[in-house]
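Support request from a user on the community tier.

User writes: "When I paste my C-alpha cells into the form, the page sometimes reloads and wipes my input. The last time it worked, I copied everything first. Here is what I submitted, just in case something in the input itself triggers the reload:"
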C-alpha cells in the first residue's frame, strides 16, 4: 500500500542545535497518527515541516507521491488546526469558517454548502451568527475544526488543539475528534505530549525523544511491548524492576530475573529480545543489568512468600473505580499495584505478588 504522506530523511538544524535528526515516517491514507513526546522531542518541528511552515535542512516531504518539500503551505492541500484557535474576532462564526474557502475563490453556492456542512458536522449550526468572544473554549475549538474541515483537505494536521481546555472538556473533544475523523475519512497527524490523549485517539503513535523517533506502533504495541526503557517509562504508569538474569532456569525452563528481592519468571522467549552488550558472547547478557516492565494492573496480591516477590504496603490510594497500592519491596525498590475495590489492603501489611509472565516486557538497561 502506498503512503498518503511520507517524510524521507527529513531533518532540521538551527546552527549547531539539532531540532530533528534525519527521520523517515510514512502515514497511510485515512490513518490517525499521533506524534507524542516530551517538550523538545522534535514532534512540533516535524509537523511544521510537513505543513510547510518550517523549511527542512535535509530530506523531503511527499503527499500522494508528489514532492511538496518546496511547495508553499497553501498549495499542499493540507488543513491545519492550532491550539490557539486563531479565529478572527471581528468575524462571525459563519464568516470564520468561510474565510479559507473565499481565499480559494470558491463560488458563493460552494461556500454556503461547505460552511453549512462543516458547522453541522461539528454540531455548531445554531451558533453561525455569533462571534468568537461569545463562545466557550470548546465551542471555539469546534469552529477552528470546522474552518479546517470546510474545504475537505485530505491531510489534516493538529498541533495540540486541546491543550488549552480543562480535563472534562478535553475528554469530550477527544470523542468529537474521533467521530469527525471517521466521518471525514481524512488522514490526521496529531501532536500532543499527553499520553492518555494519544492512547485514546490514535491508530498509531510515533513516540519521539531527543529529536528522533523512539518507536512507532499501535497504542497496544507501545503500552504492552515498548521497545526501549524510555518508551516503557513514558507510556502509562510503569513499574521498572532492575536486576540480573539467573544462569539457572525455572522448573519449566523459563528464564529467571533476580530483582526486587525475588526470583521472577520471564516468558520462555524473553531471551530473544536480549542482545549481549557491545557484541560480546551470550554469557555477557547474564552479567548485564536488565529492566522488567510490569504494568500496575498485572500483579495480584497473595500471601507473603507465596509470590514472586514480597513487599510491605506503604500507601493505599482510592481512585474511584480501583485502588492503587504502593509497595516497599524487600530490596528497597517501590512498586505500584492496581487492585479491585473489593480488596481491603492495609498500610503495614506484608504481601506477596504474582503475575502472568507474558504480561511483562524485558528490556535491556
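"...and here is what came back when it finally went through:"
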Amino acid at each position: 500500500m502506498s503512503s498518503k504522506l511520507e517524510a524521507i530523511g527529513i531533518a532540521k538544524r538551527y546552527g549547531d542545535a539539532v531540532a530533528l535528526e534525519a527521520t523517515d515516517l510514512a502515514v497511510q491514507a485515512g490513518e490517525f497518527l499521533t506524534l507524542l513526546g516530551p517538550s523538545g522531542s522534535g514532534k512540533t518541528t516535524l509537523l511544521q515541516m510537513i505543513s510547510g511552515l518550517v523549511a527542512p535542512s535535509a530530506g523531503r516531504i511527499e503527499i500522494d507521491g508528489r514532492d511538496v518539500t518546496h511547495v508553499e503551505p497553501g498549495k499542499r492541500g493540507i488543513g491545519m488546526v492550532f491550539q490557539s484557535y486563531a479565529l478572527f474576532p471581528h468575524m462571525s462564526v459563519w464568516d470564520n469558517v468561510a474565510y479559507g474557502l473565499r481565499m480559494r475563490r470558491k463560488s458563493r453556492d460552494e461556500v454556503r454548502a461547505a460552511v453549512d456542512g462543516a458547522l453541522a458536522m461539528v454540531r455548531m449550526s445554531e451558533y453561525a451568527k455569533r462571534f468568537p468572544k461569545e463562545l466557550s473554549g470548546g465551542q471555539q475549538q469546534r469552529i477552528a475544526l470546522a474552518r479546517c474541515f470546510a474545504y475537505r483537505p485530505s491531510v489534516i494536521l493538529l498541533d495540540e488543539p486541546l491543550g488549552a481546555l480543562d480535563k472534562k472538556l478535553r475528554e469530550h473533544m477527544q470523542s468529537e475528534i474521533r467521530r469527525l475523523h471517521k466521518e471525514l475519512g481524512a488522514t490526521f497527524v496529531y501532536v500532543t505530549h499527553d499520553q492518555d490523549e494519544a492512547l485514546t485517539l490514535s491508530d498509531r503513535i510515533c513516540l519521539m525523544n531527543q529529536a528522533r523517533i523512539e518507536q512507532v506502533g499501535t497504542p497496544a504495541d507501545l503500552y504492552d511491548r515498548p521497545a526501549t526503557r524510555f518508551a516503557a517509562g513514558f507510556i502509562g504508569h510503569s513499574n521498572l524492576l532492575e536486576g540480573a538474569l539467573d544462569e539457572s532456569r525455572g522448573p519449566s525452563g523459563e528464564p529467571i530475573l533476580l530483582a526486587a528481592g525475588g526470583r521472577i519468571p520471564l516468558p520462555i522467549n524473553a531471551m530473544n529480545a536480549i542482545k549481549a552488550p557491545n557484541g560480546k558472547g551470550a554469557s555477557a547478557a547474564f552479567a548485564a543489568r536488565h529492566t522488567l516492565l510490569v504494568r500496575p494492573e498485572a500483579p495480584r496480591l497473595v500471601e507473603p512468600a507465596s509470590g514472586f516477590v514480597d513487599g510491605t504496603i506503604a500507601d493505599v490510594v482510592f481512585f474511584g473505580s480501583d485502588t492503587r497500592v504502593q509497595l516497599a519491596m524487600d530490596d528497597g525498590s517501590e512498586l505500584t499495584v492496581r487492585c479491585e475495590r473489593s480488596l481491603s489492603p492495609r498500610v503495614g501489611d506484608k504481601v506477596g505478588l504474582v503475575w502472568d509472565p507474558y504480561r511483562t516486557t524485558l528490556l535491556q538497561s
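Agent notes: The reload is a front-end session timeout and is unrelated to the input. The chain has a mean pLDDT of 89. The CA atoms of residues 194 and 296 lie 19 Å apart. Escalated to web team.
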